[in-house]
Amino acid sequence: MDRRGKAALAAGAAAILLLGGAGSLAFWQDRTESGGGTITAGELALSPCTPIGTTGWEDITDGTATSIDVASFRIVPGDTLRYTCTTTVSADGDNLTATLAADTSQMFAAGSDPTLQARLVNTSLTATSSSGTVLPNSQVTEANDGETLTVAARLTFDPTTPDKVAQNASVTLNKVAITLTQNTNPAP
């Protein structure tokens, strides 16, 4: 072996010995502990919605609320019906906000007349707190936790229905689901 080869071999062996324990290679380090604790999740729930009055349904077409039996009520274009019920909200979470809505995707039972069904429009859902305050945009926060809310959904027969369309037709209404969905929290 030539001189250069022996020198390289010796240097490599020295490096291995230094790293292997004959010498020491150390980086400074330290450690501390953060505070521990318990994290508890909140809750978001609604109790069953109990109809107000006998059926919960009212005719509000002329601006006054008149209780009706939807099975015998004969709706005409321009009429607006309202279903009102009460539910108790559980909204426990420091940054919790949620939105009440009506899920009308399954509102009509199979066999309902599609002509009339297409002309019945869900126009709005409102929620009022037990203190009588209307919740803006049906928004619920932790401040509403434990409150009984009055929820009202409207159904309007489209007044622009052409002449005689959907006359004597009928639809069967399923129960409409009232949903409470948490809003996305902003990023920190």
Verbal overview:
The protein is of the alpha+beta class and 188 residues long. It has one domain (43-182). It has two helices and ten strands; from the N terminus they run H-E-E-E-E-E-E-H-E-E-E-E. Strands 1, 2, 3, 4, 5, 7 and 9 form a seven-stranded antiparallel beta sheet that branches. The chain has a three-stranded antiparallel beta sheet with strand order 8-6-10, with no helix packed on it. The protein is elongated. The model has no long low-confidence stretch (mean pLDDT 87).
- The total strand number stands at 10
Radius of gyration: 34 Å
Task: Give the number of domains.
Answer: 1
Gross morphology: elongated
| Oligomer description | single chain
Q: Uncertain spans, ≥5 residues at pLDDT below 50?
A: none
Summarize the biggest pleated sheet. 7 strands, antiparallel
Mean pLDDT: 87
Distance between the termini: 66 Å
Helix content range: 10-25%
- Alpha-beta classification: alpha+beta
Number of helices: 2
N-to-C SSE series? HEEEEEEHEEEE
* Beta fraction: 25-35%
Topology diagram in text:
Blueprint: H1 3-22, E1 43-46, E2 50-51, E3 57-59, E4 66-67, E5 80-92, E6 97-103, H2 114-117, E7 120-128, E8 139-141, E9 148-157, E10 177-182
Antiparallel strand pairs: 1-5, 2-5, 3-4, 3-5, 5-9, 6-8, 6-10, 7-9
Which key phrases capture this entry?
31% strand; elongated; three-stranded antiparallel sheet; seven-stranded antiparallel sheet; alpha+beta; 188 residues; 2 helices
Summed up, what is this model?
With 188 residues, the chain is an alpha+beta fold. Helices cover 13% and strands 31% of the residues. Strands 1, 2, 3, 4, 5, 7 and 9 form a seven-stranded antiparallel sheet that branches.
